[in-house]
Amino acid sequence: MKRYSLTLFFLTVITLCSNSAWSQSKAAAGFEKLKALVGEWQGPGSDGKLRTATYQLLSDGTAVMETLTPADEPSMATVYYVDGDRLLMTHFCSAGNQPRMRAEAAAGEIQKLDFDFLDATNLAKPTAGHIHRLQITFQDQDHIAQTWTWREEGKEMLNTFKLERKK
Known about the structure:
With 167 residues, this protein is an alpha+beta fold. It has two helices and ten strands, in the order ααββββββββββ. The chain has helices spanning 2-23, 26-35, and strands spanning 39-44, 50-58, 63-70, 76-83, 86-92, 98-103, 112-121, 130-140, 143-152, 155-165. The chain has a ten-stranded antiparallel β-barrel with strand order 1-2-3-4-5-6-7-8-9-10. The radius of gyration is 19 Å and the shape is globular.
């Protein structure tokens, strides 16, 4: 009986430690920063036009969906999620393709997430126009900047949105 209790104790400790390690993983820490964005945001892009963004939790908090609405353009959706030790996103672009990207979150306090292209669905050819990179900079709890990189025929164009949380 004593051996059984000791074994049960150690299994409980191991389980708690592994859950704690998951919650402290870099991917999970980056995802927590994204979860903190839930709400309404707005601000100008590099072109001076107003953008609005809405963040909401999906699937019992396992995904964050961003709906981005540029001025005079259709809305686009991006879904952020954790896959093991990776922080991933899929962008459902108004261009009709769906780039998938991965971010490597830095250790410590997350100030920035850099999402780099992995692959895409519905991309006619590798040189066709698509979002190839996204950088999110967390300035404070009410201000973020997003820099989207559009790649087409080997050329890149950047567009930065400076978003502020709506009160």
